[in-house]
Amino acid sequence: MNQRQIESFLAVAETGNFTRAAERLYISQPAVSKQVLSLEDELGFSLLIREYHKDVQLTEAGKLYYDFFHKVTEEYKAVYEQAQQYQQKIRGTLRLGILTGWKIQEKLQKVLEQMKQDYPEIEIRMSFADLEPLRKEAEAGKLDLIFTIRDSIKDAEYESRPQSDCVHGQVAKVDCECPFYWVKLAEMNRVLFYADDLFEKMQKQSANRTADSVKKAEGDIFAESGDEDNRTVQDFRKITFFTVADGEYDSAELVREYMRPYGFEPKVQLVPNIEEAVARTYSGMGAMIIDEWSREMKNTSLQHIVLNSCNEAVLAWKKENKNPAFACFLQEIKKLLEK
């Protein structure tokens, strides 16, 4: 049985009429009849005496179930109101850190709206940063939760050995030597981005380096006439890749690792932040690898190729976080993941 069945039965019992019950519930009369019949079938009892042109009456079983359902409904309302009062007493500030470049606000919208409804006294602050400063801010206790990629919270000296743990009712994973708990949100395809005119610019640079600017060097990738719509990853074997420097792990080696399945190791140049990587890529100076959550996916000035590998988007938090607002937010994330 469900709440709609019980509400329909109580409304009919209290109004004595299916039509008036339907008006009270703002649904059609046939819908009310269907709900009550379904409840009777499920219970195995007739709850109502139906006589033409007369108000319906309760059977003896109907009287028992009316008292029971009425009591349960009132108790449910009382408990719900108490829970609402408790939630409204929880107050504080929740500090969220989000990886720069991710277009994640739309994905968070439902959670943020639910938090505002259930916990109006909790203030949510969002900040954006690159991988290393995001992780360090969380380690320092300046952020309660960070939305980041799995690679960024691996311990630099220890192999990842996930084990089960439970915090505030949320099953998470923890690396033995890592200061974070984390939970997987999604898998995101890695994407290679480059400017429309990248190969045209590289071809001109190659020509300028050639003794005879008319005759291109044999085997020069930049001199190939490839169709921009049919570019493959292998076409980038002589292209410089930009990636953000991270003091905790070798981000350049990660880029090389991503390209090894395609048969080459690219030249990698470290830059201080994602904005510079995007600017250099946009200017046709090279390429970069980010993921499909990036806002650059909608940048019509950049081309992209989806790679055969994925990043894991994770929500991570410091193990000893005791902020009550954090526990509330984590619970809402859990509900979202279970849908």
TrEMBL record:
The protein's name in its UniProt record: HTH lysR-type domain-containing protein
Key words of the record: DNA-binding, Transcription, Transcription regulation
Keyword DNA-binding: yes
GO molecular function terms noted in the UniProt entry: DNA binding; DNA-binding transcription factor activity
Gene Ontology CC annotations of this record: protein-DNA complex
Annotated ranges, domain HTH lysR-type: 1-59
PROSITE patterns according to UniProt: HTH_LYSR
Lineage: Bacteria, Bacillati, Bacillota, Clostridia, Eubacteriales
Organism: Eubacterium ramulus
Family: Belongs to the LysR transcriptional regulatory family.
Classification via Pfam families: HTH_1
Tree of life domain: Bacteria
